[in-house]
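Can anyone check this?
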Amino acid sequence: MTVRVRFAPSPTGMLTVGGLRTALFNWLFARHAGGTYILRIEDTDRTRFAPGALQALAEAHQWLGIDWDEGPNKGGEYGPYFQSERLDRYRIAADGLVAQGDAYRCYCSTERLDAVRAEQRRHGRPTGYDGRCRDLDAAERATREAGDAPYVIRFKMPRDGVTRFVDAIRGEIEFPNDRYDDHVLLKSDGFGTYHLTAICDDIAMKISHAFRAEEWLPSTPRHLLTFRALGAEPPIYAHLPVVLGKDRKKLSKRHGDTSVSAYREQGYLPDAMFNFLGLTGWSLDDHSTIITRQQFIEHFTIERVVKAPALFDPDKLLWMNGQYLQALPDDAFAAAVTPFLERDLPPSVARPIDAGLVRAMASELKTRVKKLDEAAPLTWYLFANGTLDYDSELLLRSGKKTVEPGVAAERLAIMRAALGAAGAWDSDALDALFTATAERSGVKKGDLLGPLRAAISGSATSLPMHTSLALLGREGSLARIDGAMQKLA
């Protein structure tokens, strides 16, 4: 079988990581089988079209590194790939189903449909279309058509029996047909619904496998019967496991199911997101966590997709991103973090920022951040010129305790004297100096470094002090210590 899969989003909002997981599984399956990955835009719901959604969709693909073989900006033998450009095909298909008796025109008004649903709810029955126009006699139908009344086209679902099918992930499934009403295929504005357009396009584009969200599982009988009515073989369906939050409730924004661009802007690496999403409902074995793209492609099969709900764990994603950051060569990390520093450092810092400083701090910094947007708050003081503006109370903190100004001043004086007499000014030499000074003075190393950290960084958190001093340089470091001592005077 020639593998042809599609990811077919609606441009009604920004692509979330949940949607990106579906795209990734389609892409991996195609790449594993040497098949074709198609990007198709289901843009027939014009009332919900979101400006910028298409660009965000393309950018999400490009960021994650999943390219499409056919689709927007690439074309292909089976285009066009926007459903809004295929409306005539849907009209022809719907009219053909009416002509052969598998569908019918429904003239019911919105008001009538609302009243029917309200009555069904009052009696505790499932809501759905009651079939009013399904069996109109010839005279009434002729009258409706002569009056040019607006209508939709509905599919005639069988009223008894069951529809059976084999899902590639879940095995054999059946649904009783009497649970379904007659769904709309073509709306009164001439735009097809998903229940028609997806089927027509899957046929025309020769789709072999359809990976889609579990929420579409109950709709599968509708689609299979439509394929049958159109005289076509359906693709092999594979309904992906639902993705839940850590509390095992439906994934939502509060669980982290936000736009892909939000993760990119926070400084998640595409390789880390690829790895994380690839393991959200699929596994290589019972222990592997860090998996390369090539390993995913080599081993991705439907059989390894799990049936049980998959958990979206933001903490695991954050950990994994940290692992990928640490694994970057220093030059690559510097290149990755520079745009975030340019964006997030205080406006007073000159742009472009010092590339040499970024490269020099890369080895230490990459072990201390899990996202790239954490870099600026941790290192801003290294880019600042001169003395820093901070509350002098910060100089009095020693761990969880607060000391008297005189004690803090004495500790700073000890460090100022030791650093003023220092020979070598590199990270290793400075670290050794801290240890020797603590032993000689009888003051704990941590207590000496508390006020020094505040003096150098203007913060309670920073890179290690021996690294910070080495990066800041002798003159700049001593000037900041002198400024801090003046604050305490």
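Reply from J.R.: I decoded it. The chain is about 45% helix and 10% strand.
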